[in-house]
Amino acid sequence: MIYEPSAAESPAAIRSLVLPKLEQDLVPIVQLGHPVLRRPALPYEGQLQADELQALIGLMRRVMHDAPGVGLAAPQIGIPLRLAVLEDAYAPDPEAAEIRERTPLEFFTIINPRYEPEGTQTAAFYEGCLSFEGYQGVVERYRSVRMDYEDEHGQAQQRSFSGWPARIVQHETDHLNGIVYVDKAFSRSLSSNAEYPRWAAEDIEAARRTLGF
Questions:
Q1: Tell me: the pLDDT tens digits for 94-104?
Q2: CA 2/CA 25 separation, integer angstroms
Q3: DSSP class of 158
Q4: pLDDT in tens, 29-42
Q5: Active-site residue, from 87, 127, 150, 172
Q6: What distance in Å separates the CA atoms of residue 171 and residue 194, rounded to the nearest whole number?
Q7: 180 by DSSP, 3-state: which?
Q8: For residue 150, what is the enclosing H or E element?
Q9: Nearest Cα to 56, choosing from 113, 5, 17?
Q10: Residue 81: alpha-carbon gap to chain centroid
């Protein structure tokens, strides 16, 4: 079934989008320009049966790992629901990890999330997106956030995140609000993956000086 914004809001329409995907081991990640990425996703209110929800979460985790990435929102596979999966198990260079405050983030699911900044500090680093393949851009985000969400069992949760995990949380929650990272990126920082190794330092100072952002 093709996603049509005006026709994808009823529970029956949601299930008709989801169920065919659950028959596949992997599904494509939709790319920038697809309308599902530009509309606020619908609140999850039990549109799927419990086993269907678990199967969707499993599918999203497989797609995220296959990409590979550290987060995936349901709209990125064409499902307009406020649901995302997150996991960062990569082992970056220790110096870069320290500067970027990148720490491991165990796998978890967020449903109907919302975040608020904790404090006023921000941090700016390059990031990319599985729905905008081939590019990286510098985004300034809150250094620390508090997120309220429901887990995959429908239980209300509240957690605080700082450093790189806070960046992942903000990036994926933004997807559920129809926002892609390029909306917030410094446009002069945008770099193709072929050129990005020039700027893949621990911080962004060389890129800022040279590219003028």
A1: 887 888 899 99
A2: 19
A3: E
A4: 999 999 999 999 99
A5: 172
A6: 23
A7: coil
A8: strand 144-150
A9: 17
A10: 13
Task: Please count the CA atoms within 13 angstroms of the CA of 184 that sit on its side-chain side.
Answer: 20
Residues 51 and 58 sit within 8 Å (Cβ to Cβ):
no
Say which residue, 5 or 200, is predicted with more confidence: 200
The per-residue pLDDT for range 109-167, each reduced to its tens digit, is: 999 999 999 999 999 999 999 999 999 999 999 999 999 999 999 999 999 999 999 99
Coil, strand or helix at 204: coil
- Gap between the Cα atoms of 199 and 189, Å rounded: 10
E runs forming strands in 60-143: 71-73, 83-88, 105-117, 122-128, 135-142
| β-sheet with 122-128: strand ranges across | 122-128, 135-142, 191-192
- DSSP β-bridge partners for residue 137: 127
* Spatial distance between the Cα atoms of 178 and 150, rounded to a whole number of angstroms: 20
Catalytic status, residue 172? yes
Note the Cα 59 to chain centre separation in Å: 15
**C-alpha distances in Å from residue 68, one per residue of 20, 144, 151, 197:** 23, 25, 23, 18
- Residue the block writes with tokens 């393949």: 133
- Cα 209 to Cα 86, 123, 140: the distances in Å are 33, 17, 16
Q: The pTM is what?
A: 0.92
Q: What is the pLDDT of residues 160-202, one digit of tens each?
A: 999 999 999 999 999 999 999 999 999 999 999 999 999 988 8
Contacts of 98 (CB under 8 A, 6+ apart): none
